[in-house]
Amino acid sequence: MHEASIAYELLNIAVNECHKNGYKSIDSIKVVVGRATGVMTDALLFAFNVLKKDTIAKNAKLIIEELPVRGVCKDCGKEFESNENYIIFECPNCGSFSVNLLSGKELNITEMEVS
Amino acid sequence: MKVKLTTKILDANDRIAEENKRMFKDAGVYVINLMSSPGAGKTSLLEKTISAIKDKVKVGVIEGDITGTNDAERIERLGVPVVQINTEGACHLDANMIAEAARELPLKDLDVLFIENVGNLVCPAEFKVGEDMKVMILSITEGDDKPLKYPLMFQESSVLLINKIDLKDLLDVNIEKIKKDAQFLNPKIKIFEISCKTGQGINEWTSWLLTNIS
């Protein structure tokens, strides 16, 4: 995965949002990361902490909430959920690979604490 | 104070990728994002492919590499317009890099634009650049376990080119397993066995390509 690019983008979004609204510093940023994105949260944190240094987010804490993979099988119709870091989507009920993902691909900023 | 947001982190890239797509469509150019691990044969494939089709369609190339201009020089010798992007460390091309490189190309005069992505089986599959089709190359020297180890690229690609099949008698590699696992991950994937060295399979690939981009 490309955690450094993601950390760079999320800092950009957060800092721009602050500039637009006149806030001076960022204390924390909350993100949700679906387990099917392939993002390694440790690597994301590491990249964030390196990249934040010269920004108004230099004291910010990154809070990462991981979301499980949820899907529905197109063959047997059953819904399933998994907390594994899924990349291949297989129905745990019937083994089919014809699966619609309901969640797990999220990569969003949801909240910031600013002052 | 708390500020609520609902911003997708990769929105900026996806938005630029959509703008690229519109720009390419307006110019009437079909864009292929070519991906593989380092050394699988992307530049050799481009040389073979461009030589085979350049009398029928007008081709341009964007070369992505971490550093250096070797590949762009190889393509330039074929007499087609080429722009080199050096990512200076980044493991993939993103939409913004493509937007900037595309400005250097005579897009309106092109029919097909090949984007040779940075050699890497992981990240390039995760960033849209505004392409019409993703094509990947796997060389048999990399082993037959790669589809299941790096599934995303196989899932995202419309075409899998299995390269270096001239070496198959020298290697303990099961080409049928590569095909089976790739189709298991992506039932719609179109597969060609090729050798950029001997030219085997290149005709089948370029004929298919010409039919599917026109």
Automatic annotation (TrEMBL), chain A:
Keywords: Metal-binding, Nickel, Zinc. PROSITE patterns: HYPA (PS01249). One of its GO terms (biological process) is protein maturation. Gene3D superfamilies: 3.30.2320.80. InterPro entries: Hydgase_Ni_incorp_HypA/HybF_CS (IPR020538), HypA/HybF (IPR000688). GO terms for molecular function: nickel cation binding; zinc ion binding. Ni(2+) binds at H2. Zn(2+) binds at C73, C76, C91, C94. Pfam families: HypA. Involved in the maturation of [NiFe] hydrogenases. Required for nickel insertion into the metal center of the hydrogenase. Belongs to the HypA/HybF family. This is Hydrogenase maturation factor HypA. It comes from Thermodesulfovibrio aggregans. The gene is hypA.
UniProtKB/TrEMBL annotation, chain B:
Keywords: GTP-binding, Hydrolase, Metal-binding, Nickel, Nucleotide-binding, Zinc. Residues 31-192 form the CobW/HypB/UreG nucleotide-binding domain. Pfam families: cobW. One of its GO terms (biological process) is protein maturation. It comes from the Bacteria. One of its GO terms (molecular function) is zinc ion binding. CDD domains: HypB. NCBIfam families: hypB. Belongs to the SIMIBI class G3E GTPase family. HypB/HupM subfamily. This is Hydrogenase nickel incorporation protein HypB.
